[in-house]
Amino acid sequence: MHxxxxxxxxxxxxxxxxxxxxxxxxxxxxxxxxxxIAVVSVVQGLSYSINSEFENLGSNxxxxxxxxxxxxxxxxxxxKITLQDYQDIKERINDIDAITPIVTGxxxxxxxxxxxxxxxxxxxxxxxxxxxxxxxxxSEGRFLTFSDEKKRRRVAVIGQSLITTLSLPxxxxxxxxxxxxxxxxxxxxxxxxxxxxxxDQDNILFIxxxxxxxxxxxxxxxxxxxxxxxxxxDSLTPVQKRISNILRTNHDLAPEQPDDFKIQTAxxxxxxxxxxxxxxxxxxxxxxxxxxxxxxxxxxxxxxxSVTERTREIGICKAIGAKRHHILLQFLxxxxxxxxxxxxxxxxxxxxxxxxxxxxxxxxxxxxxxxxAIAVAFGFSAAIGVxxxxxxxxxxxxLKPIDALRYE
Amino acid sequence: xxxxxxxxxxKHYTMGDQTVKAxxxxxxxxxxxxxxxxxxxxxxxxxxxxxxxxCLDSPTLGEYYLNGTDVAQLPESRLAEIRNKxxxxxxxxxxxxxxxxxxxxxxxxxxxxxxxxxxxxxxxIEALEKVGLDTRANHLPNELSGGQxxxxxxxxxxxxxxxxxxxxxPTGNLDSQTxxxxxxxxxxxxxxxxxxxxxxxxxxxxxxxxxxxTMKDGKVLRDQHA
Lengths: 408, 226
Ligand SMILES: Nc1ncnc2c1ncn2[C@@H]1O[C@H](COP(=O)(O)OP(=O)(O)OP(=O)(O)O)[C@@H](O)[C@H]1O
Ligand SMILES: [Mg+2]
Fold this sequence. Notes:
The structure holds two protein chains of two kinds. Chain A is an alpha+beta fold. Chain A has helices spanning 2-17, 19-56, 70-74, 83-92, 129-133, 146-150, 160-165, 209-216, 236-250, 266-309, 311-319, 324-360, 371-397, 401-406; strands at residues 61-66, 96-104, 111-114, 117-120, 122-126, 138-141, 155-158, 176-179, 182-190, 195-196, 199-200, 204-208, 224-230, 261-265. Chain A is elongated. In chain A, α2 (19-56) runs antiparallel to α10 and α10 crosses α12. In chain A, 57% of the residues lie in helices and 17% in strands. In chain A, the strands form two sheets. In chain A, strands 1, 2, 3, 4, 5, 6, 7, 8, 9, 12, 13 and 14 form a twelve-stranded mixed β-sheet that branches. A two-stranded antiparallel sheet of chain A has the order 10-11. Chain A folds into two domains: 2-53 and 276-406, no CATH class; 61-264, no CATH class. By secondary structure, chain B is an alpha/beta fold. Chain B has one domain: Rossmann fold, CATH 3.40.50. Chain B has helices at 46-53, 76-85, 102-111, 117-130, 146-158, 176-191, 203-206, and strands spanning 4-15, 18-30, 35-40, 61-66, 69-70, 87-90, 164-168, 195-199, 211-216, 219-225. In chain B, the strands form two sheets. Chain B has a six-stranded mixed β-sheet, sandwiched between helices. Chain B has a four-stranded antiparallel β-sheet with strand order 2-1-4-5, covered by helices on one side. Chain B is globular, with a radius of gyration of 17 Å. The relative contact order of chain B is 0.19. The chains are: A alpha+beta, B alpha/beta. Chains A and B meet through α1, α11 and α14 of A and α2 and α3 of B. Bound molecules: adenosine-5'-triphosphate and magnesium ion (MG). Residues 13, 15, 20, 22, 42-48 of chain B line the site of adenosine-5'-triphosphate.
């Protein structure tokens, strides 16, 4: 025990004796750990905010969207949810509390114009239910109403970003803009939703479902998603089954053919996003671990130099009675202390970097460093210290006393 | 049985196709409380002899009994224990740890015994007092004169109360006055019962020894008792 404390003390002493060199040595670990922590904190912050996003979507909500199986996609077929599907679901299923069609504009219908400014935006045709199902809040004006839908009004609700990109007045209610060549009156502005995966959620524009239908025209079939909330949570599974039956019949699918659509609960949607984020974390983490490896090699290199430099000292210690384990421990502790020190600084810098990145990107969720990441970074640095310190330490410990003493 | 018993000890170095016999069939016995000096020309094998006696090196052939145990048969960890407990080694070039103070240098061998800090300190200060250097305890080696450094080294060798004090040209790097002081210290240690084995070039120093062994080409040429 006393010899352990002494080994520790002498390790610290020799690290301090070469202050600048020790600092440079740990730099590899510092950078490695800092990038791990920065990446993890940003991605976890993102995942945290996506999770809370989906919490807004009630648990009794189902989303129906087209899904082209890979085999079909290779044949050039693209699956679609059609207007017919929407009407059939709406008419034939009883337990529906609210049903929301979501049609995304394409081609010319994505062009939004005010004065001389043209902006390509995410134009969505939907109805009044959309707001409550998606927990959308208004910062000004109102959302689409039942009567907008019924009277096929040319009205639009816009996202925050369009105010700046189209150079609209600060309070744009009542202004007229062109969408797909037709005139629309702005009736509301939604509250900001920020970005997800770097995609601006506020470059968006809502118009009534009936209006977008007339813009697209009856002849061309269009792509839509359907959201529906149920009156009764227990009917979730039977409703999923019945929708599936309707869609399979409408799409003429033979029994052996796979579904060309997906009916997902909010929970299923969330977990598919979470799994994307988890794989991003793993891939980035893997890349960044390589820098930790490089840092470890740097430590090994300097430890080998240190052993060579101190060969004579090792000889002296052996001559006065040091055993193998005394020498081994001293050098091992030295390399572990070096790399833990690097890890500690790395964690601090990484956290700072993550917070900084989150702060300068507008609307980006706050960085969130999970405790496990800190524990892993710390454990990893210690392991690197042991792993890359053991060879130099063993080299020192195995020196024969007479050879070490003779070393010039 | 005597303290040290060497029988037919040889140390060979192979350099390419020729073999250097640094020690060639040396048999010798040394009793407790002897004050013995190895003398002889440069390259005659004196240092090789000391390194083997101090368990820093092992002989190519022969047996070395220290207190009745055959040292050649022992594993490295037992040899480390012997170096720590039985032997105090003093080098020509002092061999102090450069970053440790005089006191810490003297305390160092006691670490390997597992003594507590307080015990180590008490014993080390005692040893420094013995060599008259307790006032310099907190100086680093490079803040001390050559003579003072060698005293620290002697204190370090004595602090473990070894049965043998080995000194390879301990005054080789020192001026004549300091040499006299160090030799006076050796005389006193010998009077107190310490076994001392040393190597020297200088006849005046050899005169302090009660027995001189002259080496030549790795063999014992003469073994004289004063
Ligand atoms: N590591 C070694 N490799 C090869 N030969 C060696 C080695 N160590 C010593 N020798 C040889 O062994 C012989 C004895 O050397 P040693 O150092 O014992 O002499 P010495 O009597 O101490 O001389 P000096 O008085 O100059 O110190 C020399 O010829 C030397 O060249
Ligand atoms: Mg010599």
